[in-house]
Amino acid sequence: MEVPLLRFQSLTPDQIQNHNNCSFPFLFPMSKCLEQRILFSGYGFSFNKTKWKKNPFWEIKCCSLDRGLQPRPKPKPAKVDIDVSVRSNFVRRPSVGLCSQIEKLVLFARYREALDLFEIFEIEGGFDVGISTYDALVNACIGLRSVRGVKRVFNYMIDNGFEFDQYMRNRVLLMHVKCGMMIDARRLFDEMPERNLVSWNTIISGLVDVGDFMEAFRLFLNMWEEFSDAGSFTFAVMIRASAGLELISIGRQLHACTLKMGIGDDIFVSCALIDMYSKCGSIEDARFVFEEMPEKTTVGWNTIIAGYALHGYSEEALDMYYEMRDSGVKMDHFTFSMIVRICARLASVEHAKQAHAALIRHGFGSDIVANTALVDFYSKWGRIEDARHVFDKMASKNVISWNALIGGYGNHGRGSEAVELFEQMIQERMNPNHITFLAVLSACSHSGLSERGWEIFQSMGRDNRIKPRAMHYACMIELMGREGLLDEALALIRGAPFKPTANMWAALLTACRVNENFELGKFAAEKLYGMEPDKLNNYIVLLNIYNSAGNLKEAADVVHTLKRKGLRMRPVCSWIEVKRRPHVFLSGDNRHPQRKEIYQKVDKLMLEISKYGYVPNQKTLLPDVDEQEERVRLYHSEKLAIAFGLISTPYWAPLQIVQGHRICGDCHEAIKLIARVTGREIVIRDAGRFHHFKHGHCSCEDYW
Ligand SMILES: [Zn+2]
Ligand SMILES: [Zn+2]
């Protein structure tokens, strides 16, 4: 097997710099990558020991890794004080009381008070400050992430002739890095008379933290030249850097190195590897590393669960979570917030409720991230009262928490409550961001609060210095579309201070469809063709417009264009979760084991709602699907999903359905009545929005 770092070493920093634009892969010919993939694809990693002896790592023994990585034991303050006063020419004043007070404050994480006390030194000057006090001040600055604090402490040290030793140089470097002062940190590092592994690790991990991965690699190679040594910390950092660059080949090479050096089992290295493999798209390798971990830590579990979630393996992620719970390892707020988000994706209220209960049981009931995820989840799925309950119980809220609840009210047609909450947010001096405005504006538009919507739209730039973006404009177009103000909507598009985007024209097109303005609709559709020539949906909407207007020739032209472009209407599906299992339905689907009952239920429902005036809409607008067969037309996937939901869940349970296509007019009408005759709440998330059906109404107010 090729020795990975040898390749790095044979390159000078300049060479890497010059190849910066083609980044690392040039170092690794394809065959090499393939070879490594075989070696690492999970099961049975091995390397050739005879070849191994020829490489520079051969002499490295594990014990040498520890050298230089341990922080130097701190010198006793009293001794240092004497040292400093002997060496220094400054007039020293005793400061033992103050110093120990600062150190005590820092020990109890009262950083701000410690820095306040330090001001006495700065004002009066000439105090006798020992290493342990400076050390404490460094911790205070890091704790507060205070750039001003760093400058104050560092200047004081320089002005008072403090003589830096290696330990304090590293500490000062760390303080700059942690406070994000990378330019100063780099200068300090370059000017260091001597650098040990701690210095290198500090600067390299700082670079990785700020996303300067290439520079991190460059320094890593320099370091390797100087030391031919690195510890698990360095490797964990460099693996993170290769994840940042999304270069799995480099990640694999670093993985190989860690195994050769006997640090492959290190917890930090393992977690970094799991993260790297899953970010680079190889979840199997991530899983392999995880399985090999001698001790599976909370971070390890979180990383692998996040890896599965990242690639859309929501169910696997959920399975891992239950495995984690059963293994007895401690779960933290990351675990819970991740699980709640996964549940949201799976539309699984059952799992989410369990995660919510576990969250409280494990004492994270006040965690802001997890609770915000819960607010988001409940409000998305129409459990707005639950969302409100969680929101109200939160001790501290951030802008995301507010946005989630405002968006939730808006999505479910409760615009005035959304506006109320928005006003409360302003009153509580929480700064809204552009997502807040999007949420409140779309709430206004969903609920027909056009005047209030206008006021808020205008206040964006005026009171909050947030420039309205295309999505805010699209919201306003929808708002005017609902009022039938199509000319005004067009004027708004034309008056926008930037080039109108596709979603603005799409909003106008929807407005034209609902208001049956075919001329303007055609105009908007043509604009859209220019921007999104291959987006099927645009053609379908236009096709619907022509069909409704009886312009059959134009409709045929659209169909012809579709065929010429090879765009096909794909069968679409709706899915519903029952007893923690998803059930997928295509329109006219025949595959479900309970198909007989499902179809009988649909027929029965249709009969029942016809008593309330439902007439199957013959001239209904086409949904975004191919409707060749009568069976497909009569049994749309959402109807089948609802029928199945009704026969498989208790009478009080709300139904939740997800689908990728826009709900058709006929289904929308039918579901409103189904909600009425069955007394069920039905929430459908379609391509565009949420439809929350209750008591014969839909939250979208028939505008979608
Ligand atoms: Zn339908
Ligand atoms: Zn609706």
TrEMBL record:
PROSITE patterns, sorted: PPR
Superkingdom of the source species: Eukaryota
Keyword terms, alphabetized: Repeat
Each PPR repeat, start to end: 196-226, 266-296, 297-331, 398-432
All residue ranges annotated as the DYW domain in the record: 613-704
Gene Ontology biological process terms, A to Z: RNA modification
One of the record's GO molecular function terms: RNA binding
InterPro entries: DYW_dom (IPR032867), E_motif (IPR046848), PPR_At4g14850-like_plant (IPR046960), PPR_rpt (IPR002885), TPR-like_helical_dom_sf (IPR011990)
Family listed: Belongs to the PPR family. PCMP-H subfamily.
NCBIfam families the record matches: PPR (TIGR00756)
Protein name per the record: DYW domain-containing protein
Provenance organism: Populus trichocarpa
